[in-house]
From TrEMBL:
<dbReference type="InterPro" id="IPR003879">
    <property type="entry name" value="Butyrophylin_SPRY"/>
</dbReference>
<dbReference type="InterPro" id="IPR001870">
    <property type="entry name" value="B30.2/SPRY"/>
</dbReference>
<dbReference type="Pfam" id="PF00622">
    <property type="entry name" value="SPRY"/>
</dbReference>
<dbReference type="InterPro" id="IPR043136">
    <property type="entry name" value="B30.2/SPRY_sf"/>
</dbReference>
<dbReference type="InterPro" id="IPR013320">
    <property type="entry name" value="ConA-like_dom_sf"/>
</dbReference>
<dbReference type="InterPro" id="IPR051051">
    <property type="entry name" value="E3_ubiq-ligase_TRIM/RNF"/>
</dbReference>
<dbReference type="GO" id="GO:0008270">
    <property type="term" value="F:zinc ion binding"/>
</dbReference>
<feature type="domain" description="B30.2/SPRY">
    <location>
        <begin position="127"/>
        <end position="327"/>
    </location>
</feature>
<dbReference type="Pfam" id="PF13765">
    <property type="entry name" value="PRY"/>
</dbReference>
<keyword id="KW-0479">Metal-binding</keyword>
<dbReference type="InterPro" id="IPR003877">
    <property type="entry name" value="SPRY_dom"/>
</dbReference>
<dbReference type="InterPro" id="IPR006574">
    <property type="entry name" value="PRY"/>
</dbReference>
<keyword id="KW-0862">Zinc</keyword>
<dbReference type="GO" id="GO:0005737">
    <property type="term" value="C:cytoplasm"/>
</dbReference>
<keyword id="KW-0863">Zinc-finger</keyword>
<protein>
    <recommendedName>
        <fullName>B30.2/SPRY domain-containing protein</fullName>
    </recommendedName>
</protein>
Length: 330
């Protein structure tokens, strides 16, 4: 049933995207058709003006030839000059200039204001589409949840701040709280979530080693047992980056990811309605790995490990990219 439902949703989304493409393609065709129609009309008008100019030039040349011939044949006597007395040279020049102006190709202009409006509208459409896409980024970030780390859960070598967590070689003098990890470099969130959908973004820039994920509060915290590590037991889900490789862990089973580049931001989505834990690259929302749990039996905490110092190469903290407000439980 879930597979059939997922297939139906997939087909519906593909159809909607095709309809969006078809609508945009049709709008593009209509807009280009109008522009081409105006262009054809302008070219036709230019051709007409050029033809008129050519005819006018020919007529002027023919008239000049006739006048020159008449001047050669007629003796300029007082009684014969009356033939040209009505012709004012300035009037002839003004008439010629007026005709040339009316047939000037530069008088053919496209509707500049409408062209600018079309450009503005297409720019606005582009901005609208860009602000709405990618859709999955807008959707996941609508689930963003403000998160804070619990210093009482942090390993003594971890330095917890409001914005994140880092690791040093020095052990801090902190109380041996029952919730504190004493051998593994982890810290949990103060908040625990038991319903709804929650999305967290973590900045792991320039870090060669880190772990992050979600866990039940029952994860072992004392001693060197492997069950204290994220993803090694059945009560936590983890994504690990080490030595240029990404590995997803749960139940002690590693899932190596075919990813060859280092990402700066990692997103974690836990969805109680779907029973899923999803890891994504947060810049373009590229999916990395998804665990389908089915039903969570306990509340979940965000868990972070900034990793060992690695001889000074891994001193950068994991930063929490908090949202401004908690998510809805819809």
């Amino acid at each position: 049933m879930p597979q059939k439902r997922s297939s139906s949703i997939r087909e519906s989304i593909i159809l909607k995207y095709q309809e969006i493409r078809d609508a945009l393609d049709e709008d593009l065709r209509t807009t280009l058709c109008h522009l081409e129609m105006e262009e054809r009309a302008a070219v036709s008008a230019l051709d007409g003006f050029m033809e008129k100019n050519c005819s006018l030039i020919q007529e002027i040349e023919q008239e000049l030839d006739r006048l020159a011939l008449a001047m050669d044949q007629i003796q300029l006597q007082p009684e014969t000059t009356t033939f040209f007395s009505h012709l004012d040279p300035e009037d002839i020049e003004d008439k010629l200039l007026e005709t040339l102006t009316l047939t000037d190709p530069n008088r053919v202009k496209l509707d500049q204001a409408k062209s600018e409006q079309i450009q503005n509208l297409t720019h606005n459409l582009l901005q609208l589409i860009q602000c709405q896409t990618p859709l999955i980024k807008k959707l996941l970030r609508s689930y963003s949840t403000e998160i804070h780390l619990n210093p009482d859960s942090a390993h003594p070598r971890l330095h917890v701040s409001p914005g994140g967590v880092s690791c040093s070689e020095a052990w801090q003098d902190v109380p041996d709280h029952p919730t504190r990890f004493d051998s593994t470099l982890y810290v949990l969130s103060t908040q625990a979530f038991s319903s709804g959908r929650h999305y967290f973004e973590l900045d792991v820039s320039e870090k060669p080693y880190w772990e992050l994920g979600v866990t039940y509060p029952t994860i072992p915290r004392k001693g060197p047992t492997e069950l204290c590590w994220l993803g090694r037991g059945h009560d936590s889900w983890c994504l690990e980056y080490f030595d240029g490789e990404y590995t997803a862990w749960h139940g002690g089973i590693p899932h190596q990811l075919p990813v060859l580049r280092r990402y700066c931001r990692i997103g974690v989505l836990c969805s109680f309605p779907a029973g899923q834990v999803v890891f994504v690259e947060a810049e373009k929302m590229t999916p990395l790995f998804s665990f389908c749990v089915g039903t969570f039996t306990q509340s979940l905490h965000l868990a972070l490990c900034p990793g060992h110092d690695c001889k000074g190469t891994n001193t950068k903290p994991i930063l929490i990219c908090n949202a401004s407000s908690p998510t809805s439980d819809l």
